[in-house]
Design goal:
Blueprint lengths: L2 H11 L7 E10 L11 E2 L1 E14 L4 E6 L8 E4 L13 H12 L8 E7 L9 H16 L6 H16 L6 H8 L4 E6 L5 E5 L5 E7 L11 H15 L13 H7 L6 H25 L3 H17 L6 H11 L4 E7 L6 E7 L3 H16 L4 E5 L6 E2 L1 H5 L1
Parallel strand pairs: 4-6
Antiparallel strand pairs: 1-3, 1-13, 2-7, 3-6, 4-5, 7-8, 9-11, 9-12, 10-11
Helix pairs in contact: 2-3, 2-4, 3-4, 3-5, 4-5, 6-8, 8-9, 10-11
C-alpha cells in the first residue's frame, strides 16, 4: 500500500486533518537455533524488510483507538488508558493493549490516549513474528510519542512479558530481541540465558534469502508449543538430579550423550536432544559465517530441519514438503523451517541466478503434494524497530 493511501486512510478513519507520525518494526527470520530460546540456548535471527507500520497521533483525552488495515472488518477497537485488561473480543488489539498496560505499570508516564493505525506486510500466522512486531512497534511508538527514555532491552523484556503473562503464550525472548535490536545486513547471535549478543555481517552478494510460506496458518497459543516446552522442562528436571545445570543450553553434545539415560521418558529425551544439538549447531553456525564458509552454514541449516522433524516433531507435511523440495534444487545452500513450526514458513539460501527457476519448481511440487500453492518472498535484512517519519515522507 502506498504511503499516501495509508495517510488518507488514517485521516478518514480517525476524522482528522493532522499528519501522523510514522513508526516501523520488522518481522524476523531465524537462520538457525529453533526452540532453543526457552531452553537457555543460543538463537541466530535477523530482522527483515517485511514488518508492521504504525501511523499515530496523540489525543487530548484518555481514549485509545486502534485500527488495523489488515483486519479492517473489525473497525476501530476502542478502550481507555485505565481499562487495559485482556478481552477476547479485542482480538489483535490485545497485543498493543498489553504493551501499553505493562509500560504504565513499569512507571512510564503515558498521560493521554492516541489514535493509531497498524498496517502489517508480514503474512498473518506465517511464523515470522507478527505479534512481536506489533509489541515492539507499540513500544517505540510510546517511546517517541511521549518522549520516554526506555532501555531497549527493557522494552524487549516487556514485549516478552506481554506474550507470556497477557496473551498466554509461553514463548522465549528471541522474537522481541531480533525485532528490537535488529541491524541492517547483520544477523544476531543471542544467548537467551544471559542476553549477551553478537552481530555478524550477513551480506549475501550472489545469494538470496527466500522465505517460503506454506500458507498453512498456525495459532501458536493453541498449538503444541507449550507442550514442547513442558517436555523440555521435565527432561531438564531429570538431568538436574545428577547435574548442576540451569538449562539444557548448558550441555555439550558429549555431556548429553553421557547423561541422557537420566531422562526416563523417551519422547522427553528426543526433545532434549534437539535442544542440546541445535544449540551447538547455532554456535558453530556463527563461526562458519564469520569464516566465509557458507556451504557449511547451509549444511547446518539442513541438519537443523532434520532435527526439528525427527526429534522435536514440529514440522508436518507442509513444511517437510517445502523444505525437501527446496534442498534438492540447484544453487541451494541450505533450507529449513523457521519459527515455531506447525505450519508457517521455511527459509532457503539460494544463488540469485537460480531464484526464478527455484520458485517455479518448488511451488509446482508443493502444490502437487499439499493441494494448494506456497508463497515466496525475497528477504533483505533491515534495521530493528524505530521511528521512520522523515524517511517515510520522502
Amino acid at each position: 500500500m502506498r504511503n499516501q493511501q495509508l495517510l488518507n486512510t488514517f485521516q478518514t478513519i480517525f476524522s482528522t486533518t493532522e499528519t501522523p507520525r510514522i513508526f516501523f518494526a520488522p518481522g524476523r527470520i531465524n537462520l538457525i537455533g529453533e526452540h532453543t530460546d526457552y531452553n537457555g540456548g543460543h538463537v541466530f535471527p535477523a530482522s527483515i524488510s517485511y514488518g508492521t507500520y504504525a501511523l499515530v497521533q496523540k489525543r487530548n483525552d484518555q481514549k485509545l483507538r486502534f485500527y488495523s488495515q489488515n483486519f479492517s472488518h473489525t473497525g476501530i477497537i476502542e478502550c481507555n488508558l485505565a481499562e487495559l485488561d485482556y478481552l477476547q473480543r479485542d482480538g489483535w488489539a490485545n497485543f498493543p493493549k498489553g504493551m501499553i498496560k505493562f509500560m504504565q505499570e513499569r512507571g512510564y508516564n503515558i498521560a493521554t490516549g492516541m489514535d493509531i493505525l497498524y498496517y502489517g506486510v508480514i503474512p498473518n500466522g506465517a511464523g515470522l513474528s507478527s505479534s512481536a512486531s506489533i509489541e515492539m512497534l507499540t513500544g517505540v511508538v510510546l517511546e517517541g510519542l511521549y518522549n520516554l527514555t526506555i532501555d531497549r532491552v527493557d522494552m524487549i523484556l516487556l514485549g516478552q512479558k506481554v506474550e507470556n503473562d497477557y496473551i498466554g503464550v509461553n514463548s522465549g525472548i528471541m522474537d522481541q530481541f531480533a525485532i528490537g535490536k535488529g541491524k541492517k545486513d547483520h544477523a544476531l547471535l543471542l544467548n537467551c540465558e544471559t542476553l549477551e549478543y553478537t552481530y555478524t555481517p550477513l551480506e549475501l552478494k550472489i545469494h538470496q534469502i527466500i522465505i517460503m510460506n506454506t500458507n498453512k496458518q498456525r495459532t501458536l497459543s493453541s498449538s503444541k508449543y507449550n507442550e514442547r516446552r513442558a517436555q523440555c522442562e521435565h527432561a531438564l528436571a531429570n538431568l538436574q538430579t545428577e547435574l548442576p545445570i540451569k538449562s539444557l543450553g548448558d550441555l555439550t553434545v558429549e555431556q548429553f550423550e553421557q547423561w541422557k539415560h537420566l531422562i526416563k521418558d523417551k519422547t522427553h529425551q528426543k526433545r532434549a536432544k534437539h535442544a542440546v544439538y541445535e544449540n551447538v549447531r547455532t554456535i558453530e553456525a556463527l563461526q562458519k559465517l564469520n569464516d566465509g564458509k557458507l556451504a557449511d552454514f547451509g549444511k547446518l541449516m539442513n541438519e537443523s530441519h532434520a532435527s526439528l522433524q525427527n526429534d522435536y516433531e514440529v514440522t508436518g507435511l507442509e513444511l517437510d514438503t517445502l523444505v525437501s523440495a527446496a534442498q534438492q534444487q540447484s544453487g541451494v545452500i541450505g533450507a529449513r523451517m523457521t519459527g515455531a513450526g506447525f505450519g508457517g514458513c521455511a527459509i532457503a539460501i539460494v544463488e540469485k541466478e537460480h531464484v526464478d527457476r527455484f520458485k517455479i519448481i518448488v511451488n509446482d511440487y508443493y502444490t502437487k503434494i499439499v493441494g494448494y500453492p506456497a508463497t515466496f518472498y525475497l528477504a533483505t535484512i533491515g534495521d530493528g524497530a524505530k521511528e521512520i517519519t522523515e524517511e517515510w515522507r520522502v
